[in-house]
Design brief:
This protein has about 260 residues and is of the alpha/beta class. The chain is built from six helices and nine strands. Helix content is about 40%, strand content about 20%.
């Protein structure tokens, strides 16, 4: 074998090795970039799906909570010390159910000077008139309390359905309950809901009701007419309170908050 041939073969081996090294470097670089993007995407997605656990808005200052039998009976003096202005508490559901913690929480919260309101969990398959009567007969409504609220959301008792007849029935019976409460109090009840139920039942059907919107990821948009309360977390943590609790903001100022109070 001549020296010239040997040099050519050696050069080819070196070129192949250099090409292989370049490919390995490109692979390592591509892999590193993919890993970086994956880590960044993980934190972005986690940030989107994770709920806030505390009141930390620099925009909203009127803070509230809502409770039911899923929460322990709270130390309401402790709640007041944390500058929480208002609390909605579940009173009734359907046409016969009474929340077992309602009377305790109601009395203790009023004693601590937290502004309290009562809400009814609306059951889709039942008469709106019967549910209104049950709520009015059972819950407490005193001067200076929050306007009563109706909770409209899907649940095991309220399965999701886009069936037109079913949706029309839900709206019809909800309007009956809304009108009965309006006749009693002289103001329309607040409606608590989420984006899905707002689109199905509330939008364009209840223009005079204050909307209490649940959105665990972002502030409600102005496409949701008349929203005044934003529930932004189901996993709130407050010092001295066991377990998670729902956290809310009132949209406007302390002076305007008076619009939520019964005369």
């Amino acid at each position: 074998m001549t020296k010239k041939v040997q040099r050519k073969r050696t050069k080819r081996r070196i070129n192949r090795k250099q090409s292989k090294d370049k490919n390995i470097k490109k692979y390592i670089l591509s892999f590193s970039i993919a890993v970086c993007f994956g880590i960044a995407a993980f934190f972005v997605i986690r940030g989107f799906f994770e709920e806030p656990e505390s009141f930390d808005s620099g925009k909203y200052f009127v803070k509230g909570i809502d409770v039911s039998h899923h929460n322990p009976i709270l130390n309401w003096e402790n709640v007041m010390e944390q500058n929480i202005t208002f609390a909605y508490m579940k009173a009734t559901e359907g046409n016969s159910h009474l929340d077992r913690n309602y009377e305790f929480n109601y009395g203790l919260a009023r004693k601590a000077n937290v502004k309290v309101g009562s809400y009814h969990f609306y059951t889709f398959a039942l008469s709106g008139d019967e549910q209104a009567n049950h709520f009015l007969k059972t819950a407490k409504f005193n001067e200076g309390d929050l306007i009563p609220a109706i909770d409209v959301e899907h649940s095991p008792a309220n399965p999701y359905s886009k069936d037109k007849e079913f949706v029309a029935m839900v709206i019809r019976e909800l309007k009956i309950m809304d009108n009965k409460l309006y006749e009693h109090f002289g103001v329309h009840p607040v409606i608590y809901t989420n984006k899905d139920c707002y689109k199905l039942y509330i939008k364009n059907n209840f223009p005079d009701n204050i909307i209490w919107m649940c959105d665990l990821h972002k502030e409600p948009s102005d496409d949701i007419k008349n929203w005044k309360i934003w529930q932004f977390s189901h996993k709130g943590e407050l010092p001295g309170i066991d377990g998670h609790i729902d956290l809310n903001y009132y949209r406007y100022t302390f002076a305007e908050f008076k619009e939520l109070l019964l005369p």
